[in-house]
Amino acid sequence: MSEIPARAAGPRRTPDEIVWQSSPPGSIYDYIKVAAFSIGPDGTVDQWSERAERLFGVCAEDVVGRDPVEAFVPPRLRGQGHRKLAEILDGREWTGIVPFRLPARQDPAARGTTLGEGPDPIAADKGPGGAEGGSGGAGSASGCLPAREGVAEIYVMPTRTEDGDPAAVCIAVDVRTLHGVETDLAASQAIFGQSPFGFVLFGTDLRIRRVNERFASVFGRPAAKHQGLGAGDYLVPAQRDRLEAALRHVLEKGGALNDLSLTGTPPGESQPRHWSLDLYRVHSGTGRPLGVAALATDVTRRQAAAREAASARRNLALLNEAGSRIGNSLDLETTARELLDVAVPGFCDLASVDLYQALLLGDEQAPGMADGSAELRRVAFASAVSDVLPFLRQRQGGGAAPGTGGPARPVPPVSTPPPPRTESSAATLRESPAEVSPEERMREWSASPAGPFTVGRPSAPGEGRRERGRPWYGYGPGPEEARRHGAGAGSVDVGAVHRYPSDSPRARVLRTARPELLPGTDGDLVQSTLAVPMVAHDKVVGLAQFARTKGSEPFGERDRSVATELATRAAVFIDNARLYRREHERALLLQRSLLPPGEPEAAGLDIACRYLPGNEATEVGGDWFDVIELPGHRTALVVGDVMGRGLRAAAAMGELRTAVRTLALLDLEPAEVLSHLDEIAQGLGSPQQTTRAARQDQDTDLAEVYLATCVYAVYDSVTRRCTFANAGHLPPVLLEPSGAHRPALLLDVPPGMPLGVGGEPFEEVTVELPEGALLALYTDGLVESRHQPLDEGLLAFRNALTDPGRSLEDICDQVLRRLDTHHGEDDIALLMARVQGLPEENVGDWTLPRDPQSVGKAREYTREQLAGWDLEALADTTELLVSELVTNALRYGDGEIRLRLLLDRSLVCEVWDEGLVQPRRRRAKDTDEGGRGLQLVGLLAASWGSRRTPHGKTVWFELGLPDGESSGVDATEALLSLF
């Protein structure tokens, strides 16, 4: 009869059916090898069962009718065996251990038969001549198995035949097999009961048949109480389905399934545990599947250690990524966005950066910074989930989306739960798959094409997501919580200025410069926020906030260290960007203050100019231009570029520009001006050395050497001649009036060496400019960039100058549009002038002999010319000053005298002679009869002076044209004031 199972499968049976059912394969007798046979009245075997055949390896026809003692008992024990057999036939019941000898027999594999088949094994056991104990070697050679001995426990029960004769029924058990079963059972019990791993035996119905004490102790109930339970009594549905599917697979397919990961929460514990299960099928002795055995190993600590190691690797990779991605720009907002691009979503779900508004404005001692309540500006915000909350709130409240005025958009349906975050802990194990939390919906929505995003400096509040086609909605604590505790990571628009109350946690973080973990509020999707101060150079510059939503892994101490490291790295770069921006703005302010104010004006020229500084990523350069009015309706045009960048380059540019204006007012030739500038530039790098010899002997640091390029041109509006001198600068460009269909010309001006090099003279080139021609001076930023070679830029510039008849302002705008001027790599200076020479009727020119009568002729020419110009109001003053200058030329000069009157925006009078001695103004004493001429000129003229010429000198004065409101200085009063 078979073992009655604890819980039988299938329909219920009656007790009689259970007791008298036939034994299926796999009963206990397959393991202990029980056999039965009977002995007749004559002491020979009269019945031999099939199990006896399998146990002793002898067929019934070979044993029946034979004496069992002679057939099986060793010769040395046969006497005692015969005595025992006689006692049994006398009716005595006996149980004992009997050694037996299995005779040599034919190998079943050799003859293709099973045990109990083939010729007589007893006969085979006899040697030649019928002697027993034939040679085993011979038997082996003939394909026979050698004889062996065994031990059997025999239970002999006396009985009688139908005729009443004494007989016996014998039951034999292989003792060695039984001892093996006992040993295996003891070992199995020891392993099963003392194993440190949980052991579970599932039946074919996937119900528990047996568990060991280790498994029972984990789940807090006796081992017997687990019998009959299923996987659903321990695991949530999702985990249950996984385990049952694995059990069915092993039960049907056989084999083993290793390292099946399951998660569950034992009774009385709040934290889930993780197990690794090894499954294998269990069989009976005949190979019938009995169920599935599961060996469970608690790997919670191993998984925690693996998570810690993974977290450490992830954090290390995060910091490595931060080192390569943060600080690639000198822009504040870009650096803040780089920090958030690294942090979201790899480290947190939401992040923001607030910087002190005062620091951004250059005030480092603003009130409120000491207690953390000063104004902050949100410079960047990033989120992987922020789109979901407005829709969740709309769904809960049924309202419209804020700021849209329309109906609320529904939350996208969730058909299946999204996969959990790899770094998050498992959710509650008994949660139903149909119960999808808002956090799960949020994760699925954030994984959509809307995806994580980073916002930085929108054009107006709420426009941070405009590039995605949807408005951005911030989130965080409600108005009351924000008022009491300070705004959260997402409740302030990017670009908005806000502050935290001095008693709020975030203000405390700013005040103490220590990070804090701030828990989320009820009803909010934020689980917790790490508020980290951004400290650079021992100064708190702002606040970085990293938030994780509910359902994510909470922040730990390692996360706090990582957040602090990220914030510190970004703070250093942000502070550097802030300092750079401050220096950039100061340099730009200095540079702009040194450029000509307003629209420059010049006699005989129509002027237009443009200046474009480089972007904030590049430091301010040393580009400058200037328009300087010179005596005689002449104009100096200057364009230069100091090599280098930053505040020092701008300061050097200011010094050179001031020197240029000073030298230009001395009315020096262009080559002389550049020679003096060259010496000044050499002195900028070594201000303590004042002599040329000292500068040459000094080992000057190359970092302190200032080099500059400059082109200096002097234009004479009377002759329309322009004299150029070039110090390593790009050549001027000339567009002739008839060049509408031809490219502009590059004037052939010898470039010379840059200023600051020294040792080389500069050459001059004089060019007569046609009336209406366009002259362009520029810096290299206009025609050269990283993506445009100089040759291509010059050709593009020349081709951009196409219509000399258009207004200069339009031409400048056209040039900047057509050329690559938005690269921001360098400053751009452009100075354009249209030639408009003085008309011949506005020039009076006479030559006077060296004769005292020339003074009267000069007064006569002057009065007539002024009358022709309708300037009789200036006649008396002009005549008086002309007579003084002509008298000085006759008295102190040489050669013939030349008188020239020029009329443009003012009246200029020039007296030329061949003398080299410059007039010197001095104060005459009261008793002196002369020496008051130049004093009179200085009193009556708006300005006066003298300059050298190639053949002598020129003394000039300038008078303003009458405007009808002021009568000017009275000549009589001025004359009397001298005495």
Task: Describe the structure in your own words.
It contains 29 helices and 34 strands. The protein has 979 residues and is of the alpha+beta class. Strands 13, 14, 15, 16, 17, 18 and 19 form a 7-stranded antiparallel β-sheet that branches. The protein has a 5-stranded antiparallel β-sheet with strand order 2-1-7-6-3. A 5-stranded antiparallel β-sheet has the order 9-8-12-11-10, sandwiched between helices. Helix 14 runs antiparallel to helix 20 (557-594) and helix 26 (854-868) packs antiparallel against helix 27 (875-892). The longest helix is centred in the middle third of the chain and has 38 residues, at 557-594. The radius of gyration is 56 Å and the shape is rod-shaped. The chain starts with 14 loop residues before the first helix and ends with a helix. The model is unreliable at 1-11, 15-23, 108-144, 391-490 and 697-703 (pLDDT under 50).
Task: Figure out the total of helices.
Answer: 29
Helix content: 25-40%
Strand content: 15-25%
How does the major sheet shape up?
A: 7 strands, antiparallel
Sequence stretches where pLDDT stays below 50 over 5 or more residues: 1-11, 15-23, 108-144, 391-490, 697-703
Kindly state the mean pLDDT as a whole number? 76
Distance between the termini: 156 Å
Structural class category: alpha+beta
